[in-house]
Design goal:
Blueprint lengths: L1 E6 L5 H13 L7 H6 L7 H9 L3 E6 H7 L12 E6 L2 E6 L1 H6 L3 H12 L1
Parallel strand pairs: 1-2
Antiparallel strand pairs: 1-3, 3-4
């Protein structure tokens, strides 16, 4: 089992600069709550980083353009971003959808939700 986190942001340098500016200037309209939960304005959230580095869960992280390149299929249209998927064998299914991610307000809430769903 592996969790696959897909951010609603693209991977390019200019994309990162624009995303950071958007988080600062207009955080209420920023479209990637997963980004906001796991990263501050400039660096990874400390609590999230500790969880990620010390967890026994296998995790991979993708920007949406990287994910769509790697996992090309007719099923990609079924996903909205951000999302967290669970991979078992060759199967992908939704672990935490956009709606759930958008209700969370902190990295602590994200970690609690992951623990709740895994157990």
């Amino acid at each position: 089992m592996k969790l696959i986190f897909v951010y609603n942001a693209n991977s390019g340098f200019l994309d990162r600069v624009l995303d950071n500016a958007h988080k600062i200037v207009s955080p209420d309209t920023y479209e990637c709550n997963l980004c906001a939960l796991t990263f501050g304005k400039f660096t990874e959230d400390d609590l999230w980083k500790a969880f990620r580095e010390n967890s026994a869960l296998a995790m991979e992280f993708y920007h949406k353009d990287e994910f769509e390149r790697k996992f090309r299929s007719k099923w990609l249209a079924a996903y909205t971003y951000p999302t967290v998927l669970i991979q078992t064998g060759y199967e992908l299914s939704i672990f935490m959808n956009t709606e759930i991610l958008n209700t969370l307000d902190s990295s602590e809430a994200l970690i609690e939700e992951i623990h709740r769903l895994v157990t």
